[in-house]
Design brief:
It is built from 18 helices and no strands. By secondary structure, it is an all-alpha fold. Helix 1 packs antiparallel against helix 18 and helix 10 crosses helix 12. The longest helix has 29 residues. It starts with a helix and ends in a 7-residue tail after the last helix.
Length: 371
């Protein structure tokens, strides 16, 4: 029964990751011309076939696949990315990097940062977190940090095991979305890797029975990271419901700390100009893709899903699954109004939102020989 559960879970993960990665291969290979469109089918077949085989190969006797070697791999990838952000110009028309720059630049000169030509979609802490990198002169450092955070999440995972960690690393390296993020200087993988790393940290140090100083600090960190994108709230609903299912009272207290810190990060901008904040700010932009009623329903569903989780691994997997479904619904809603061609190949829908689920699904990938 347990093996069947992991087999089904792995199959779903491979198919979703294959679908998400193939979307990017399809969109940008078609732009290169018809012959390159064949890359879509070759990539999808290769990605799915390789991971289906890799999940069964017993490599426990391969001694060089261990925590140290995996740390070196992620460190090496981070160094390559660091070189790439200096050597490769920003590609594509994706406006995430300009949005970060314009928000921070506007704030520096005393201009309300949410009423700009690009209309930034992130909550305040996303930009404040990026500010030191802005001062260093290159916001591309965020992509490097995202890779390192994901690597740390693999190495610090409570169920770390060499074969599964090696499989997760392989799937990471085979994902074009990672390289796409670097080329266009998008921070979505970083954003979700930050959430994932925080959950791994919380699982190690947060006590659901004793509201001590670590309880408060982790709650504050959760509130700050919630102030990046609203979709983070879905992951929190799953994790908090899982973590505090045996102590609902402390779960409510923890959630209150998170929400208070989140609201405090918004307060200066609401006071500054409430009309512009609610008219052009993150709520208006982020909820343009998904009606408030649907978003509210998903919060309830996420909490119920988290309550049913039996361990952190399943919690992380369910988080990735919910994030994928949410973005898929938003994609279908937009497609119904503007058409599939405009949504996929034009500017009708930002398919980079599908990246939200990737860190969680990658970390949930488990070697079958260990079940």
């Amino acid at each position: 029964m347990k093996l069947t559960w992991y087999l089904n879970r792995n199959s779903i993960i491979i198919l979703i990751l294959g679908f998400v990665n193939t979307l990017f291969v399809l969109k940008y290979s078609v732009r290169l011309g018809t012959p390159y469109g064949l890359l879509t089918f070759l990539y999808l077949f290769g990605f799915v076939a390789l991971l289906l085989m890799a999940q069964r190969v017993d490599i426990h006797h391969v001694k060089f696949i261990n925590a140290m070697s995996l740390a070196i791999i992620f460190g090496g990838v981070a160094l390559i990315e660091l070189a790439a952000i200096y050597l490769l110009p920003q590609a594509s028309r994706v406006g995430r990097l300009p949005a970060l720059i314009e928000w921070i630049s506007s704030l520096q000169v005393g201009k309300f940062p949410y009423h700009t030509s690009i209309e930034p979609s992130g909550f305040p802490f996303l930009f404040l977190f990026a500010y030191p990198f802005y001062l260093l002169g290159n916001l591309g450092y965020l992509e490097v940090l995202g890779t390192l955070l994901f690597g740390i999440s693999i190495l610090r995972n409570e169920k770390f095991e060499n074969q599964s960690a090696g499989l997760q690393t392989l799937a990471f390296l085979l994902s074009p979305t990672i390289y796409y993020e670097l080329l266009v200087r998008s921070e979505l993988f970083f954003n979700m890797s930050l959430v994932l790393a925080l959950i791994i940290l919380s699982n190690a140090y947060l006590s659901e029975q004793k509201p001590d100083w670590r309880f408060a600090i982790i709650g504050i960190l959760f509130g700050l990271v919630l102030s990046t994108r609203s979709v983070v709230g879905l992951v929190y609903a799953i994790y908090v419901a899982y973590r505090f299912r045996r102590n609902v009272r402390n779960g409510i207290l923890f959630s209150a700390i998170v929400l208070l810190v989140f609201l405090l990060t918004l307060l200066p901008f609401v006071v500054w100009d409430p009309k512009l904040f609610f008219g052009y700010g993150p709520f208006s932009v982020q909820f343009a893709y998904l009606p408030m009623g649907v978003a509210g329903t998903f919060i309830v569903v996420s909490a119920l899903v988290g309550w049913s989780a039996c361990d952190l691994s399943k919690t992380v997997y369910l988080s990735g699954l919910v994030l994928f479904v949410v973005v898929a619904i938003a994609f279908l809603l937009r497609t119904s109004s503007v058409g599939i061609v405009a949504s996929l190949f034009g500017d009708g829908f930002d398919i980079t939102y599908f990246i939200f689920c990737t860190p969680f699904l990658l970390l949930s990938f488990t070697h079958l020989k260990n079940q």
